[in-house]
Amino acid sequence: MIRPAFGISALVSLPDEPQPLSIRLYPNPAAESLYLSLPDNGSTLHIEIIDMLGRTLISQPCIPILSLSNIPDGLYVVRIRDNSGSIILTQKIIIRK
Fold it and tell me: In the 8-state DSSP scheme, what is residue 92?
């Protein structure tokens, strides 16, 4: 049973959460290149492409166009980290040539 509380403010406020960075990876599925739509501070971000066995195939600073020519067809995880090493985006991509 819920008992009403009279004379006590029941309003609770939560702190504002920081807005996530707007990063977009396209196309998915990708063939030869993966395009990254990065925020203005995108040069401080780091991208990793990891296969399903957990092997890191690419690990480099983020750039707007990432070549996938040396990566075989398959399902991969893209992980983007900020300069402190915190993961800010994890997304699955398919490479199909």
Answer: E
- In angstroms, the CA 65 to CA 35 distance is 5
pLDDT digits (tens, 9 = 90+) for 63-79: 999 999 999 999 999 99
Rounded-to-integer distance, Cα 87 and Cα 84, Å: 9
Site of tokens 């957990």: 54
List all residues 6 or more positions away from 75 whose beta carbon is below 8 Å from its beta carbon. Answer: 52, 92, 93, 94
CB 57 within 8 A of CB 77: no
Collapsed DSSP state (helix, strand, coil) of residue 35: strand
21-28 contacts, C-beta under 8 A, 24 or more apart: 21/88, 21/89, 23/80, 23/88, 23/89, 25/78, 25/91, 25/93, 28/93, 28/94
SS3 42: helix
